Amino acid sequence: MDLVAWADSLLSRLLDVGMQSLLLAALVWALCRYLPRLDARTRAWLWWLVAAQMVVGLVWHAPVALPLLPAEPVAAQMAMAAAGDASPAFTAAGPAVTVTSPTASTQETSLDAGVLLLVAWLAGVAVMLANTVRQAWQLRRQIARARPCRNRHIREEYHALGRHLGIAVLPMLQVSDDIDSPQLARPWRPVLMLPAAALQRMNSDDLRMSLHHELAHLQRRDLWWAWMPALAQHLFFFHPVAHLAAREYSLAREVACDAAVLADERHAPRDYGRLLVKLGVSTAPSPALAGASPTFRILKRRLLMLQHTASPLRTSALAVTVGIVLLGVVPYRVIASSTPVAPVAAAVPVAATPVAAPVIAAQADPVAVPTPEAAPRAVVVAAARDMPAPPAPPAAPAAPRVRAPAAPTPPAPPPMRGTWSIGGARDGDAYVLIQDNEVTMAGHSDDIRIARTLQQGKAPVLWMREDGKQYIVRDAATVQRVKAAHAPVEALGAQQGKLGEQQGALGERQGALGAKQGELGRKMAAIATERASAALQGSRASDAETDRRLDALAQQQEALARQQEVLSRQQEPLARQQEALSRRQVAATEQMQREVKRLLDDAIRSGKAQQL
C-alpha cells in the first residue's frame, strides 16, 4: 500500500473513531449526569472506556459491521461503479480506446490532501509527545533532587498506614523542595514524595489523610491505567472527546481515592475538605499523581462530591460497565442491510463487432470482400464529460437477396474503428501522436484522420492544432518526449486494471456464495411448505426431522454469511487503493497536460513544428 492509500485509510479510521467516540461520550455523560449517586470508581472506569475505545478503534483492523442502513439497488451500485471508473476501456472490432478522466483544473496543488492532513496529524502527535517527554524529564529531575524522609514520626505513621491497608511493599518515602503537595510518581519503582515546606504546617490527621490518598492510588494502580487516557489525548489531540475523557477520568479517579480515605471512618468529610483546600491547586508533571487539584474548578467539584460518597450495589455498577462495553467500546461500522454486489472498478471491455449483411451475386463466383487491416490502438486523454455513449449493439443481419451482377466497387480505405469522437481541448486546441500503431491524442476522431493522412509510411508523426493553426512535427526527440509525458498516466491505469481484476475475482466469489445462499433459502422454504402441509393434515410425526433439517440449513446459511463478511472486508482495502490511484491519476494527468503543453509550445518556438 502506497503513502496516499495509507494516509486515506488512517484518516478514515480517525474520522470513524471520532464519530463513534462522540456517541459513547454522550452516553457516559448522560449516565453520570442523571445517576448522581453513581460511585466515583464506576465513573472512572466509564470514562477510561471512552479513551480505550478511541485507541482500540484506531488500531482495530476490521471494525464490526452493523447492517443498519437500507440495501442499495444493484443497478445503482453498478452505475456508481461505472461513473467512478478512472480509466474505462472500450473495445470495438480491433483497437482499444483507453480514456483517462481528469477532474477540473481547479486543483492547483499536486500534493494529495490526505498526505497533507497526515503530516499535520503526525506533527500534532509529535508536539504532544515532546510535551510529555519534557514533563517526564522534569519529574526525573525532581526525584533525583529529592532526599529520603528522616522524620521518625512520619515514617512510623507511614508504615503503620501501610500495614493497615495491607500493602506489602511500600513506595520509597522522600521529601522534595520542588513540590507543593504529596505526589506518587513513576509506575515502576514508585516514589511517594512529600512537600518539605508543607510538612511543618500539616498535623498528624492531615498527614495521615494525605498518605492514605496517595496509597489509594497505588492500590488502584492508577499510574498504570492512566496511560490509556494519555495515549488517547496524544493520538486524538484535535478531538474534544479525548480531552474530556482524560479530564473526567482524572477527576473520578481522585474522587475515588477521596472516597477510599473517608471509607476508613477515621476522618470526617469536613476535615478532609479542609485538607483539600489547604493543598490548593497544583499540577503534577506526567507521570505523577498529586493530592492537590489541577484547577479550581476540579477542586470545587471534589468538594461537592464529598457529599455523595455512598455507592450503589456492585452488581448494578458492573451491569452499567458491561452495557457500555457492549454498546460502544467495540469499534463498529454501519453498512447496508444486505451484502452489496462487489463494484467493478476495473475497465470493462465492451465488444462491438459489426456484422455485415451478406450479398449473394448471381454468378457462380462471388466477389471477394476485402478484409480491413487492423486499426491502431488509441490512447485518448480527454475530459469525462466529452466521452460518448458506448456503441449500440449490432443490428441483426438482413435477409439475403439476389441481385444482378454489378461492377466491382473499389475497396474503401480501412476504417478507424474503435476511435471515439471525444471533445478536444479548450478553445479548439488538440493534438494527435501516431507511433508504432498507437494513437495518443486529445481531440476528436476527425483529428486522427487528418494526422493519418500526414504520416509518411510507418514513421511517427505529431499533429497539433493551436489557436486555430495546424502544425506537424516529425522530430523524433520531440515525439518521444510527448510520448514519455503520457507514461505515468498509462502506468496508473494499468495498476487500476490489476486492482480491478482482484476486485472482480472477489466479486465472483461473492456471487457464488450468494447463489448458494439463495439455494439454501429455497430449500428452507420447501421444508417449511412441507411442514405446513403436514400440520394441515394433522400429522406431527416428522416435526423433529423437519427441525433438524432446518437447523442444518440455518447453520450453513450462517457459515456462508460469515464468508461473505470476510470477502466484504477484503474488498474494502482494494476500494481504498482504487480511490487513491484515481486521485494520483488526476494529479498525473494535470502534470501530463502541463508538460505536453510546454513541449508543444517549445516545438512551435524552435521551428520543429511546421505550420500547415
Describe the fold and architecture.
This protein is α/β, with parallel strands linked by helices and 612 residues long. The chain is built from 17 helices and 17 strands.
What is the secondary structure topology, with strand pairs?
Layout: H1 3-34, H2 40-59, E1 64-69, H3 74-83, E2 89-91, E3 96-100, H4 113-145, E4 147-148, H5 152-165, E5 172-176, E6 183-185, E7 191-195, H6 196-199, H7 204-220, H8 222-225, H9 227-235, H10 240-262, H11 269-279, E8 288-290, H12 296-305, H13 314-329, E9 332-336, E10 360-361, E11 377-381, E12 402-403, E13 430-435, E14 438-442, H14 445-454, E15 461-466, E16 469-473, H15 476-485, H16 487-536, H17 543-606, E17 609-611
Which terms would index this structure?
12% strand; 55% helix; eight-stranded mixed beta sheet; alpha/beta; five-stranded mixed beta sheet; 612 residues
Distance between the termini: 49 Å
How would you classify the helix and strand content by structural class?
A: alpha/beta
Strand content: 5-15%
- Shape call: flat
Q: Work out the helix count.
A: 17
| Low-confidence regions | 74-110, 339-426
Mean pLDDT: 74
Largest sheet: 8 strands, mixed
Strand order of the largest sheet: 2-3-11-14-13-15-16-17
Radius of gyration: 38 Å
How many beta strands in the DSSP annotation?
17
Provide a brief overview of the structure:
The protein is α/β, with parallel strands linked by helices and 612 residues long.
